[in-house]
Each structure stands twice: as structure tokens, then as C-alpha cells.
Specification:
Blueprint (H helix, E strand, L loop, with lengths): L13 H13 L12 E6 L5 H12 L3 E5 L13 H8 L5 E6 L4 H8 L4 E6 L6 H15 L6 E5 L6 H10 L6 E5 L8 H9 L3 E5 L3 H6 L2 E4 L10 H7 L7 H5 L6 E3 L22 H18 L3
The protein binds phosphoric acid mono(formamide)ester.
């Protein structure tokens, strides 16, 4: 594989997104041998179900192999090895590394010393999760069947959540986009994202009320109040449950509008919403597998 790290969504432009999504669409239902002999190393210093397993599944579906580090706790990090030293070693075992880490900027640090491409699978609670954002955007464009003229309402935990941050940077590349950020004051989206969106002609609104945006939005992007990132128990208890999507919420959405969520959910979408025609969050998982296959193929072809 040629070198091409993927650490943040700002690396993409509209044309490269279109190309990536065309590859993703072409891979539906496919098993290939195109990456036969290539090895993916998954290094997850934080828990993951979807990102790790979907990348591993993607590599296997493309004919490649996978080596997995069980968790940061069982790695040489627990003996005091630096991230840089670990990457210098693992990049000699694999052709591409998918990495999740608790520190913002960890993927950039890894990329600086790696012999092989680094894919950022999430860095820190206020960093990025670029492959999640790509699969979110692929879901949105596939379901709505358009790229421009979309209203996305992000709901809940906007401060300590890397996935909405990454998707916001992608939305700024399209025309006639409106973004509503619905949150409690202490979980507002950070100013770097707000400034970026406004600077790219996106209509941005911030509110504490979910009501009106639910009726107008094409996409309701629900988030989890992340217990692991909100250290104060009293704050967590106060914030969780504030913006729950119920069946009544879903029924108030306009025809064709969708509900997405990076998952896991822990109560912020009622289970009876799963049967709503607006619920797309489990279908989103299938879109994600295609996008991650496309990312691996693209990187294998030199980015
Ligand atoms: N959406 C997401 O990143 O899920 P995991 O934490 O299970 O990888």
C-alpha cells in the first residue's frame, strides 16, 4: 500500500467524497480478493464494537487479513511504551493501521512515525472520528438521494462527541445546508466547528429546544450522553434523558426525514422508534461496512 494517512475529514473535498461513495456503492453484496495478502492491524486503546469489527470485516471481505490488539490494557502501553514506539513496531507487521485512542491528536502523532497508512478510528472525546462521519454522510445522501439542500439537526451531546464534529466539517462542503445544534448549554458544539460552518455558508442555529427542528429537519442526528466523558455523576444524571427521541418525536418528522445515530444508544432513542419509517440507525451500520471497504480499497490504491 502507498502512504496516505486519514486522520480528519478536512482532508476530503466534494469530488473525492463522490469518488469514495461510488466505490462504496459498487461494493454492495461483494466479496473480493482485491486486497489479498494485505494485512490490517486494529489498535484500539478505547472500547469499540462497530468501528473495529466493521473494519476487520471489511478487510476480510476484500480478501485481506487482520491482526488485532485486544485492548490498550493488554498492550505494551500498560508497561509504559509510548504510542510512537508502538506504531514504529506495528507498522512493520501490517500494511494499514486502524487506530482509536483517548487523546486528541493521537492519530496525527501516529501518522508522523508510521511506515504504513494510519486510519483514525476516533481520537479523544473532542477530536475526530472521520470514518464515522463518512458513513454518516453516505447514509444521508443515499437515503435522501441528494447532496445539497439538507437540514441536519444534531441533538444532545455535541461537546464531548467526535462524530458530529467530523460530520460538520463534511457538511460545509455542500450547498444550501442548514445545521441546528440542539443541546444543553454545557454540551454546546465548540466554536471551531461553528466558525467553520458559518465561514462555509452554512446556516447555523443553536437551541435548547428540540421541538421545531424535529419538524423541519431532513436528518435528526441523535447522540449519546457519554458517561465515560462526563466525569461528574450529578452532571451525567442531569443531562441524560433530556433529549430522548420517542415514537411521538419520530411521528412528528416530515415524510422522508431520517433519524441517524453513531451508536451505541443507551436510552436516547426509545426502542419503539426502531419500527418507524424514519429510523435508519441500524441500516446505517450496513452503509458503514461499505464505506470502510471503500476506504481500505482507496488507501490500497494510493489514496
Ligand atoms: N459508532 C462507533 O464508533 O461505535 P463503536 O464505539 O462501537 O466503534
Amino acid at each position: 500500500m502507498k502512504m496516505h494517512h486519514f486522520v480528519e475529514t478536512q482532508q476530503f473535498d466534494r469530488e473525492s467524497l463522490k469518488e469514495l461513495f461510488a466505490v462504496a456503492s459498487s461494493l454492495e453484496g461483494k466479496r473480493e480478493e482485491s486486497l489479498k495478502g494485505r494485512i490490517l492491524a486494529s489498535l484500539f486503546y478505547e472500547p469499540s464494537t462497530r468501528t473495529r469489527l466493521s473494519f476487520e470485516s471489511a478487510m476480510l471481505r476484500l480478501g485481506g487479513g487482520v491482526i488485532t490488539m485486544e485492548s490498550g490494557a493488554s498492550s505494551s502501553q500498560s508497561k509504559g511504551e509510548t504510542l510512537e514506539d508502538s506504531i514504529k513496531v506495528v507498522s512493520q507487521y501490517a500494511d494499514v493501521i486502524v487506530m482509536r485512542h483517548s487523546e486528541v491528536g493521537a492519530a496525527t502523532r501516529a501518522a508522523a512515525v508510521s511506515k504504513v497508512p494510519i486510519i483514525n478510528a476516533g481520537d479523544g472525546n473532542m477530536g475526530q472520528h472521520p470514518t464515522q462521519a463518512l458513513l454518516d454522510l453516505f447514509t444521508i445522501q443515499s437515503e435522501l438521494r441528494r447532496e445539497d439542500g439538507i437540514h441536519v439537526a444534531f441533538v444532545g451531546n455535541l461537546k464531548y462527541y467526535r462524530s458530529p464534529r467530523s460530520l460538520a466539517y463534511l457538511l460545509g462542503k455542500y450547498k444550501d445546508i442548514k445545521v441546528t445544534f440542539v443541546s444543553a448549554p454545557e454540551l454546546r458544539m465548540e466554536s471551531d466547528v461553528l466558525d467553520y460552518l458559518r465561514g462555509h455558508g452554512v446556516a447555523v442555529e443553536e437551541t435548547e429546544e428540540m421541538g421545531e427542528s424535529v419538524k423541519d429537519a431532513d436528518v435528526l442526528y441523535q447522540t449519546r450522553i457519554a458517561k465515560e466523558w462526563i466525569k461528574n455523576d450529578a452532571d451525567y444524571e442531569r443531562l441524560r434523558g433530556r433529549y430522548v427521541i420517542t415514537r411521538a418525536t419520530a411521528d412528528a418528522m416530515k415524510e422522508g426525514a431520517i433519524i441517524i445515530h453513531p451508536l451505541p444508544r443507551v436510552g436516547e432513542i426509545s426502542e419503539d422508534v426502531d419500527e418507524s419509517p424514519h429510523a435508519v440507525y441500524f441500516k446505517q451500520v450496513a452503509y458503514g461496512l461499505l464505506v470502510r471497504m471503500a476506504i481500505l480499497k482507496t488507501i490500497a490504491n494510493g489514496g
